[in-house]
């Protein structure tokens, strides 16, 4: 499990600026694992026993055709998604692109983990870790 230290040194994508409560503006210098996980949901895909398994679904837990797919989607391949629609895979390494930017170009078909992250602002106590 990665602690915030691996995430602390990552640079945010846009050098986001936020007020730290004292009126001063501070850039985002990275992201750390949030303490609370966000609610997860499991999208449903059609179960068609006897049909060939959806190959993409068995590899990623996602199917872009959804209810229109003609193949079987066995529940053992289902992957929970975060509120952002990204896969929650705690047994996999963190998605490095998501770790830096809080976005993932692969979306729900990404093979890596996308936990809830919180920004770290320059000069915050969290940055000193």
Strand content: 5-15%
Low-pLDDT runs of 5+ residues are 1-20
Individual helix count: 3
Could you give the count of β-strands?
Answer: 3
Care to describe what's here?
The chain has 129 residues and is α+β, with helices and mostly antiparallel strands. A hairpin with a 5-residue loop joins strand 1 (17-19) and strand 2. The chain starts with a helix and ends in an 8-residue tail after the last strand. The chain has helices at residues 4-8, 55-60, 96-101; strands spanning 17-19, 25-33, 117-121. The protein contains three helices and three strands, in the order αββααβ. The model is unreliable at 1-20 (pLDDT under 50). 13% of the residues lie in helices and 13% in strands. It has a three-stranded antiparallel sheet with strand order 1-2-3. The longest helix has 6 residues, at 55-60.
Strand-helix topology:
Elements: H1 4-8, E1 17-19, E2 25-33, H2 55-60, H3 96-101, E3 117-121
Antiparallel strand pairs: 1-2, 2-3
In short:
The chain is of the alpha+beta class and 129 residues long.
Which characteristics define this entry?
3-stranded antiparallel beta sheet; 129 residues; 13% helix
């Amino acid at each position: 499990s990665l602690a915030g230290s691996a995430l602390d040194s990552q640079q945010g994508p846009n050098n986001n600026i936020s007020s730290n409560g004292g009126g001063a503006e501070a850039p985002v210098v990275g992201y750390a694992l949030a303490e609370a996980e966000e609610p997860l949901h499991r999208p449903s895909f059609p179960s068609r026993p006897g049909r060939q398994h959806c190959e993409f679904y068995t590899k990623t837990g996602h199917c872009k055709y959804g209810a229109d797919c003609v193949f079987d989607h066995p529940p053992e391949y289902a992957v929970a998604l975060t509120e952002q629609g990204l896969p929650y895979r705690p047994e996999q390494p963190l998605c490095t692109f998501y770790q830096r930017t809080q976005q993932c170009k692969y979306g729900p078909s990404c093979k890596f983990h996308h936990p809830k992250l919180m920004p770290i602002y320059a000069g915050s106590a969290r940055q000193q870790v």
